[in-house]
Structures are given as C-alpha cells and as structure tokens.
C-alpha cells in the first residue's frame, strides 16, 4: 500500500511542478502570449465561437458548478442547495419563486466585488431584487428614503 501512495505522491508532485513551470512561463511571456491568442481569435473567430457554444452546451452543469465554487467559494455545492431549500425556492427579499438561476447575495464590504465567502453570504435573490439592492449600494438609509418617497406618492 505504501508503494502505491509513493507512486501517487510522486505523480502529484510532478504535476504540481509542471503547473508551476507553466505558470512561470505564462507570467514571463504574458504580453506575447496575449497577442498570440488575440491573433488566433481574429483568424478563427466563427469556428471558435461555434466550438465554445458546443462546449458550453455539453458542459453546462460543470461550468456552473465551477462558477459557484470559484466565485462564491462554496466548499461544497450542497451548501448552495441547502440555502435554496431553506428559502423554499423563493427570493429572500420579495418572496417570488425563482424563474431563473438565483443570485447569491453577499456583503460587498467583506470580499472583493465579484466574490463572496461563508462570512458574507446572505441569501439567494431574484435578478430584480439583486439589481435593486446593488443600485442602492446596500444602504439602509437610502432604502428608507426610497420607501418614504414611494409612500408619499401612493
């Protein structure tokens, strides 16, 4: 058993070394590689679009799972589905049933704008509520002013 573990660890180490070497190369030659990729895109735009569309259609779930893991830092996708179940497939603000994939709401002062973590994740929102809170910059005072404004004209 130890022999198998050694072989596995050696392969992993070799793989990590290769990844590190590739990363160093990419950093060292970033400008040249970017120009090369830009030329490749310009020369094969339609074929690459078609290929990307086919890939995304085939791997839709895997792409979504990677997005949830990378952007919203869910250690396991079960945590996302638990939030979904706890909210009974409804938006945390307006209570409407989700028609499309819900947005993960989070405190923007905790993490960079395009990320979230366990500490700042608040709930799942529909697109309208997510945009609304975003436009009000999560300001309770501004939201209170908006409520007073709406009541004045009711």
Describe this structure in words.
The chain has a domain of 105 residues: His-Me finger endonuclease fold (3-Layer(aba) Sandwich). Helices cover 65% and strands 6% of the residues. The N and C termini lie far apart (75 Å). The model has no long low-confidence stretch (mean pLDDT 90).
Order of helices and strands: HHHHHEEHH
Main-sheet strand order equals 1-2
Indicate the radius of gyration in whole angstroms.
23 Å
User: Tell me, what is the CATH class of the domain at 50-154?
Assistant: Alpha Beta
Give the tally of β-strands. Answer: 2
The pLDDT mean sits at 90
| Proportion of helical residues | 55-70%
Structural category? mainly alpha
- Helices, by number, come to 7
Query: What is the CATH superfamily of the domain at 50-154?
Result: His-Me finger endonucleases
Gross morphology is extended
CATH topology of the domain at 50-154: His-Me finger endonuclease fold
- Main sheet summary: 2 strands, antiparallel
What's the N-to-C terminus distance? 75 Å
Instruction: Please name the CATH architecture of the domain at 50-154.
Output: 3-Layer(aba) Sandwich
**What share of the residues does DSSP label as strand, in percent?**
5-15%
Low-confidence stretches: none
Give a short summary of the structure.
By secondary structure, the chain is mainly alpha-helical.
